[in-house]
Amino acid sequence: MAALLTLVASALLSGFAGVVFASSVGSGSPTAGTPYLLAAYAAAFVGATQLRAGRFNAWGTVLAVLLLGTGITGLGLATSAQWAASLFTGSVLIVALVLTGGRVALPAVLRRRTGTRPAETTIEEVRR
């Protein structure tokens, strides 16, 4: 039931955001939101690298939005080229995912080197 309510709340907020966006643009074009896709994906995936590596979470996404927003605003204030904001967003996304991939994979590599393995449970042990 909680998942259903979460999806309904997400749909309502998305619908409201769409109405606000259409009113600010002044028209309804299917390609009007395309420039916002990279920033949205980057915020979600960089947010998954912040607090709990590899898991999407709301507070990590808030931190990612603040990080990306501060960088993009700084580039705008520095009168950089128009493409610099996309380059910054993509670079932050790649660096965060590479660092998190190493942070997630490192314990497994260390376990293999020391020869210790996590406890493996068989079906018979679970049934007991």
Strand-helix topology:
Blueprint: H1 2-25, H2 37-50, H3 58-77, H4 84-114, H5 123-127
Largest sheet: none
Number of helical runs? 5
Q: Average the pLDDT over all residues and give the rounded result.
A: 80
| Gyration radius from CA atoms, angstroms | 21 Å
The shape is flat
Q: How do the SSEs run, as a string of H and E?
A: HHHHH
Estimated share of beta-strand residues: under 5%
Distance between the ends: 32 Å
Summarize the amount of helix as a percent range: over 70%
Structural class: mainly alpha
Low-confidence stretches: none
Number of strands: 0
3D architecture notes:
With 128 residues, this protein is mainly α. Helix content is 73%, strand content 0%. The chain has helices at 2-25, 37-50, 58-77, 84-114, 123-127. Helix 2 (37-50) packs across helix 3, helix 2 runs parallel beside helix 4 and helix 3 packs across helix 4 (84-114). The relative contact order is 0.08.
Fill in the keyword field for this structure.
128 residues; mainly alpha; 73% helix
Summarize the structure.
The chain has 128 residues and is mostly helical.
